[in-house]
Design a protein that fits this description.
The complex is a heterotrimer. Chain A has helices spanning 8-20, 35-40, 42-45, 84-88, 142-165; strands at 32-33, 49-62, 67-73, 76-82, 98-99, 102-110, 121-131, 134-135. By secondary structure, chain A is α+β, with helices and mostly antiparallel strands. Chain A has 2 domains: 8-135, OB fold (Dihydrolipoamide Acetyltransferase, E2P) (Beta Barrel); 140-168. Chain B is mainly α. Chain B is globular and about 75 Å long. The two termini of chain B are 14 Å apart. Chain B has 2 domains: 7-177, no CATH class; 260-460, no CATH class. Chain C is mainly α. Chain C has helices at residues 2-6, 12-52. Classes of the chains: A alpha+beta, B mainly alpha, C mainly alpha. The B-C interface holds B 176, 193-194, 197, 250, 253-254, 257-258, 261, 264, 266-274, 276-277, 283, 287, 290-291, 294-295, 298-305, 308-310, 313-314, 317-318, 322, 401-402 and C 1-4, 7, 10, 18-19, 21-23, 25-27, 29-30, 33-34, 36-38, 40-49, 51-52.
Chain lengths: 185, 502, 54
């Protein structure tokens, strides 16, 4: 594994920092909704201001007039349309090798955004990082490596045995009377 | 074959399944290469276990082939059905080991969903899946689209007999060449040409929507494999909705539509017979049913105010109806949006589209355009016969890569398979209702599994009842093999345990 | 394939040209369906939206 997990102390310090510096919250900001809530209550929330908290996943997609950042919480994932500069400011996106930055997004929710081809989205006007992401290591269990090697040996032996002794060409006599068999080879 | 199978019968069937398993072991090379390239060693070890298991078991089974074997139809059919079950177990190994699936059942469900090009998934935390395992999911669906037996035929069964029986067992009956091995190779050639064009097109599309170059390539390859095989898997949990791009969706439509066309049609088009497109009964059938169902859905969606403009109606309505009708299953909405926002009429149009499906001998599922066309022409012929004097006769034919006689036997076959599809859908729907889902949700998801589509209205989730997972898994298997192979397996099992007839 | 085998086998360049013309035909079919989709959205949309008016 080339990636090493951040020292736990550093991660804790970063979390503490995020907690100490209060987010510039708007007075009327709603509490964060889960993505499933937005889907289930889409008609009711359409065009209203919502807040959303989740991990930035994949990669930012910078377009002409803004950027798409997809955000996932435990219940689902949703596209957030934000300024390109804001998107560039997000340090880490979730992937196999990393947990992405946790974002808290406030903005206007669209059930079927007319501007974006009917996508369900949030047009963000405020985006803050509430927790930084971190690299994730995927250690290989030693036992599994041994098992894999042993199995690979068995497989190599079996294939070699089949190649040496097996009847690889299959049956030689044509089956009489079956349709198709007379023409098939 | 006599009423009770003999030892040789078992050996032939297991040996064929073994050869298919060796083929699967070879296919494991693709995700293994990605894992090595990306340094994803944990995934590499998991995949190598699946690969070794396939090769070892495959070689052991293949060695059982008896010397004086006389494989027949029943062997071919039963071996196909058995192969698909065996492949499911072998492909599910790295899924389970990855920790992204809650149980073995979930892993098996995903493997079967992949091979049958359905595209429903029980994966958890898909957004953090390794590149290697994502490649495996999409390779499974790509191989499943061409047919695992077709794969084995082109490389392994080769010149041996019994290949055609296996080939037909996998619901493919077109012969592009007299030799079935040549046909299998031609199918792979067509797929390879489209693979190069499609991955290239999606790579460029990915770059144009702001994906980094490497991501754009991987996503292009994955999404292409899922599109061409009309599979419907995608590398991110939002499916194609992740990309937020009309261009990306448009390119997808072109390639999943291509994948839903008959390989014989592709072969005709690629060898200079371009006029076949306009004359082909399946293309006409698809065009007519699609146009009708989409018009219905568009009217329902516009009337209910679900989508309030032409652009949104195209990108949500058109996209999902064609995704359903080609049995692809790509989605750009959340599953529950179908349930909450689409009107019952629009959902009915979707269900009919999913049941009708794409072309025969393609990667698509469903009743298929060929049978829809045959039944329509048969009805027309009947009416025509009624109006003519009783002694008058006329030719009953259908054009699909050449004129074919539309005799009573052909019509009966098409009608029986269509009837079995509808019956399976009813059963899948009833299973969903029994598990506590609303009739509309159960009917939609039932059509999705029966037609190997993969669109979800939210029923398929890791938390769904295990019994329903098993029902859906079996329905996907039965639907993909178009019943015959599975019915043959059933008869075989019965004859093995039944009393010997006098 | 009756239609395919009746023709003389093309050379490598001709085969490539035939294959790409085959793909182009399929893409043209896809474009035609999309064009129909656009027209249907327009018409069905108009009818549907008109139906919602009070």
């Amino acid at each position: 594994m080339s990636r090493v997990a951040l020292a736990p102390g550093m991660a804790a310090a970063a979390l503490l920092l995020a907690a100490l510096v209060p987010a510039p919250a708007f007075a009327e900001d709603p509490p964060p909704s889960a993505v499933t809530d937005l889907v289930e209550r889409a008609a009711e929330l359409d065009g209203r201001r919502v807040a959303l908290e989740g991990e930035a996943i994949g990669s930012p997609m910078i377009r002409d007039s803004g950027a798409w950042v997809n955000i996932a919480d435990r219940s689902g994932a949703l596209g957030v349309w934000m300024g390109a500069e804001t998107a560039r400011g997000i340090a880490r996106f979730g992937s196999y090798g990393a947990v992405g930055d946790t974002l808290r997004v406030t903005g206007v929710f669209h059930r079927a955004c007319a501007e974006h081809g009917g996508d369900m989205d949030v047009h963000a006007d405020g985006t803050i990082v509430t927790a930084p992401g971190r690299p994730v290591a995927h250690p290989v269990p030693a036992g599994r490596v041994v098992a894999a090697l042993a199995l690979a040996l068995v497989a190599a032996g079996a294939v070699a045995a089949l190649a040496a002794f097996g009847q690889d060409r299959g049956p030689r006599t044509p089956p009489p009377g079956y349709p198709g068999s007379a023409k098939s080879s | 074959m006599t009423a009770r199978p003999r030892l040789d019968d078992y050996r032939i069937i297991l040996a064929y399944s073994g050869r298919v398993a060796i083929g699967l072991g070879a296919v494991y090379a693709v995700p293994l290469a990605v894992a090595a390239l990306e340094g994803e060693w944990a995934a590499f070890v998991d995949l190598s276990i699946g690969c070794s298991a396939s090769l070892a078991l495959g070689a052991a089974l293949a060695s059982l082939m008896p010397r004086e074997a006389r494989p027949g139809w029943l062997h071919g059919m039963v071996a196909t059905a058995v192969s698909w079950l065996l492949e499911m177990f072998l492909a599910a190994i790295p899924y389970r080991l990855s920790g992204h699936y809650a149980s073995w059942l979930d892993s098996l469900f995903d493997a079967m969903s992949g091979f049958t090009t359905t595209g429903l998934t029980l994966v958890q935390d898909l957004d953090h899946l390794s590149r290697a395992l994502n490649t495996w999911r999409h390779v499974v669906t790509f191989v499943g689209g061409q047919g695992v037996v077709v794969l084995a035929l082109s490389f392994l069964v080769g010149g041996s007999r019994g290949g055609y029986e296996l080939y037909v067992g996998e619901a493919k009956d077109e012969r592009l060449f007299p030799r079935v091995a040549h046909t299998a190779k031609a199918i792979w050639k067509i797929s390879a040409v489209y693979l190069a064009v499609g991955v290239g097109a999606l790579w460029v599309a990915g770059l144009s929507i702001g994906l980094p170059a490497k991501e754009a390539f991987y996503h292009g390859a994955w999404v292409y494999m899922a599109a061409w095989s009309t599979g419907g898997f995608a590398p991110m949990s939002q499916n194609v909705g992740y990309y937020h791009s009309a261009v990306y969706e448009l390119v997808c439509v072109a390639f999943f539509l291509a994948g839903s066309l008959n390989f014989a049609l592709h072969h005709a088009l690629m060898t200079g017979n371009r006029r076949e497109l306009a004359r082909n009964a399946e293309v006409i059938s698809f065009t007519v049913t699609f146009a009708g169902l989409f018009t219905l859905a568009a009217w329902a969606l516009a009337g209910s105010g679900t989508y309030g403009g032409i652009a949104t109606l195209l990108r949500k309505g058109f996209y999902h109806v064609i995704s359903a009708h080609t049995t692809t299953g790509f989605m750009t909405v959340a599953a529950r949006q179908f349930a909450r926002e689409w009107t019952p009429l629009a959902l009915c149009a979707m269900i009919l589209a999913m049941m009708a499906g794409g072309s025969a001998c393609s990667t698509a599922g469903g009743v298929k355009g060929m049978r829809v066309a045959m039944l329509w022409l048969a009805i027309r012929n009947e009416v025509r016969a009624l109006l003519l004097p009783s002694h008058a006769s006329f030719r009953r034919r259908i054009h699909a890569s050449g004129d074919r006689d539309l005799g009573d036997g052909v019509v009966k076959g098409a009608a029986l398979v269509a009837l079995l599809y509808v019956a399976t859908w009813v059963l899948a729907t009833m299973a969903g209702v029994a598990a506590g889902y609303s009739p509309m949700d159960a009917a939609f998801e039932g059509a999705s599994v029966t037609g190997n589509v993969g669109l979800s209205i939210g029923v398929t989730a890791p938390g769904m009842p295990a019994a329903l997972k098993v029902v859906y898994l079996l329905v996907m298997w039965v639907g993909r093999l178009e019943f015959m192979a599975v019915l043959a397996l059933g008869r075989f099992v019965l004859s093995a345990f039944g009393r010997r007839r006098p | 394939m009756k239609s395919g085998s009746a023709r003389a086998a093309p050379g490598p360049g001709g085969r490539l040209r035939q294959a790409s013309s085959g793909i182009a035909t399929v893409l043209a079919y896809a474009a035609a369906l999309m064009a129909y989709g656009f027209a249907a959205c327009f018409l069905a949309g108009m009818a549907g939206w008109a139906g919602r008016l009070p």
